[in-house]
Amino acid sequence: MSDTAEMQILVVDDARDIREPLGQYLKKQGYRVRLAASAAEARRAIEEARISLVVLDVMMPGEDGLSLCRWLVAQGGPPVILLTAMADETDRIVGLELGADDYVTKPFNPRELLARVRAVLRRAPPAAPVLDATPRRFAGWTHDPAARSLDHEDGRHAELTSGESRLLGLLLDAPRTVLDRSRLLDHMAGREAKAYDRAIDNQISRLRRKIEEDPKHPRLILTEWGGGYLLAADAEVVT
Fold first, then answer.
1. Together in a domain, 14 and 116
2. pLDDT in tens, 75-109
3. Residue range of the domain that includes 190
4. Is 128 inside any structural domain?
5. Of the candidates 224, 216, 219, which has an alpha carbon nearest to the alpha carbon of residue 184?
6. Are residues 11 and 72 in the same domain?
7. What is the dihedral of CA 13, 15, 21, 23, to 10 degrees?
8. Rounded to whole angstroms, how far apart are CA atoms 82 and 126?
């Protein structure tokens, strides 16, 4: 059996004349395909099947593609390629900032989309390494990897995405030590690991907004220019 036959692609588009021909084309390329006409159908498909990648239209009635993309990223779901209108540059930028892996503008050549599908699947690691699930305390915060949450001794609370929690766990594994981007990417396997440095930078930026007093002038997660990132605090196991 080919590698592509092991992969299932979910095509989400309310337009039947796009959704069904694209599904047929991807099937001819050896992929298994599921179709969804709405975000609600897509959510059910994600829960019912092992989806390797989502091709997602941005403009849909009801819940739009950007909202669904945000949910997929927060859930640690599969990679996402957005389908956007040629003129909607803002949607493309927002989608990438949310965590989409790539985008294709409509009208598109199916062969171009296929090339992007293959590229995203090549760089998406199949599984994430298992990290320590022990809660740890640092700078007044307690990180609970199992709950993907942060609680401060002053009562503040923050929910983390799977990628944010994993990245924070890596920093807590080596406090006061510079971790370069390549090392972080090696351990950030799974949905939120992309094969480019900006993925880590975006994750760090989101973490800072949740834990720093002033995210623009961070004191806990520091940048080592040209090197990587450092957690400027001691970490201890919560007993």
1. yes
2. 778 899 999 887 667 877 888 888 888 999 988 99
3. 136-237
4. no
5. 224
6. yes
7. 20
8. 21
